[in-house]
Design goal:
With about 200 residues, the protein is mainly α. It is built from ten helices and no strands. The longest helix is centred in the middle third of the chain and has 26 residues.
Length: about 200
């Protein structure tokens, strides 16, 4: 854990602001703006980039991924730049919780993968790049977005230690545990062989 050199009240304020940013449901907003309907009534009902992709609109999916990643990265980087590493980690965790449990949608949000990647790239870019590479390889081989996300997430804590970011181990363990929790249904479907694959484009 990093050294706590910021007053607790200020860390709390940072957390509230980061949570508000993380709660912005970009997938829902983009789907509506681009005329794709209510994302919560499409596919799995999830508000993340994977479900946006299931509408058939790749641009909408990429925009959702980018913005969901950016909100975690921006919250973490701004807090770190202003108040130090502890504040950056608090902001990262709060923005992540905002995405998973957004106040604007009755606390029913996404699964956190894009936001996790954004946080990783912002706070420990070599770790973030390695996570992206692992995701890409597993997805290319399996065509399961959920499996790729789970494997890449599980690698996160190992990578932060191996690449010299040990003060972030607690953060990555917490983020990883929540991602696995939110993917409980996907894990059951993967084990039973009923998880949906992304078909290769012809």
């Amino acid at each position: 854990m990093p050294e706590l050199d910021t007053p607790l009240w200020l860390l709390g304020l940072v957390g509230l602001l980061a949570y508000a940013l993380g709660s912005v449901p970009f997938g829902v907003v983009i789907a509506r703006v681009m005329g794709l309907g209510d994302l919560r009534q499409i596919g799995s009902g999830n508000i993340g980039a994977t479900n946006v992709m299931r509408t058939g609109n790749r641009l909408a999916g990429l925009l959702t991924f980018g913005l969901d990643a950016a909100k975690g990265a921006i919250a973490a980087l701004m807090a770190w730049a202003l108040l130090g590493e502890a504040a950056g980690q608090v902001a990262a965790l709060a923005a992540f919780l905002g995405h998973l449990y957004p106040v604007y949608l009755g606390f029913r949000g996404g699964k956190g993968v894009a936001t996790f990647i954004g946080i990783a790239l912002a706070l420990a870019w070599p770790v973030g790049l390695a996570i992206c590479a692992i995701w890409a390889v597993v997805f290319a081989l399996s065509r399961y977005s959920s499996l790729a996300a789970l494997v890449a997430t599980a690698a996160g804590p190992v990578l932060v230690v191996a690449l010299g970011y040990g003060t972030m181990l607690g953060l990555f363990l917490a983020l990883g545990a929540m991602i696995f929790w939110k993917h409980a249904d996907n894990i059951r479907r993967l084990r039973s062989g009923t998880e949906a694959r992304f078909e290769r484009r012809k």
